[in-house]
Amino acid sequence: MKNKNFILRLVTGSVYVALVVGGIFLGPYAFVCLFSIVVILCLKEFYGLVNAQKRAQISWGYNCFGGLLLFLSAYLYVAEISPYFVFFLYLLYVVSVFVGELYEKRQDPLIHSAYIFLGQIYIALPLSLLNMIAFSQVEMGKAIYHPLLILALFVFIWINDSGAYVTGMLLGKHQLFKRISPNKTWEGFAGGLLFTIAVSFVFAHFERQMPLYHWIGLAVVVVIFATWGDLVESLMKRTLEIKDSGKILPGHGGFLDRFDSLLVAIYGVLFYMQLFIRN
């Protein structure tokens, strides 16, 4: 049974990695298609969890469309395809949510709206900001698609998860955050950090335009913020009294279980880039 579960996890993980790497390296159109799907599926899963727990009754189709609007607007603006007023479409969606509550006659419209916008802020916003990392390079005054930084972000998260798991299993004694995730340890965190820094040397070897110390800095930032991201989702799952966010990925849980670290790590990478790399 354990061997069967391991094989299932391995196959699912391999397909997941292949889709992500392919979507990143096949160009900007593949990138926008891949993460448009990620936005929709993660929002659908989040709103489905809220509905299942009777916290609210959210129309996931309309609000997933709202999150997609934000992601596509950010892509069109950052890629310099459309000016800033492309975001007005998303603002219309925001207004429609508030106005819609006037006519729905719900018992607690504030709670309902709060859960809608929690999904937008937690999922759609950081994935929309991912476009800023994807188009962070400028050539001849124009932003160009740069897949290596996006790949590095994912690889750092994956290596950190694997390194933390192995190190924590072998050496873990001191709990990192007992109240939220009792299985995480400081030893695991340190192991994940060291493995990720080691991988940053590989990226520095192939991408020499950015100095090694910046690759190391990005690795450290990703590990810290990705750990927070994992803990944030653990807090949400504890609040909703569930083990996994879903079962759609055999052996790996739901989409939020796969992208929880990314949702917060994106902010860390952007902070680092704006504060250190671009100045």
**Roughly how many Å is the radius of gyration?**
20 Å
What composes the largest sheet? 2 strands, antiparallel
Q: pLDDT average, as an integer?
A: 89
What sort of overall outline do the alpha carbons produce when their principal axes are compared? globular
Into which percentage range does the β-strand content fall?
A: 5-15%
Find the count of extended strands (DSSP E, 2+ residues).
4
Structural class: mainly alpha
The low-confidence runs, each spanning 5 or more residues with pLDDT under 50, are none
Helix content estimate: over 70%
Q: What order do the strands of the largest sheet run in, or round the barrel if closed? A: 1-2
Succession of helices and strands: HHHHHEEHEEHHH
Separate helix tally: 9
Gap between N and C termini, in Å?
54 Å
Structure in words:
By secondary structure, the chain is mainly alpha-helical. The chain is built from 9 helices and 4 strands. The strands form 2 sheets. Strands 1-2 form a two-stranded antiparallel sheet. The chain is globular. The mean pLDDT is 89.
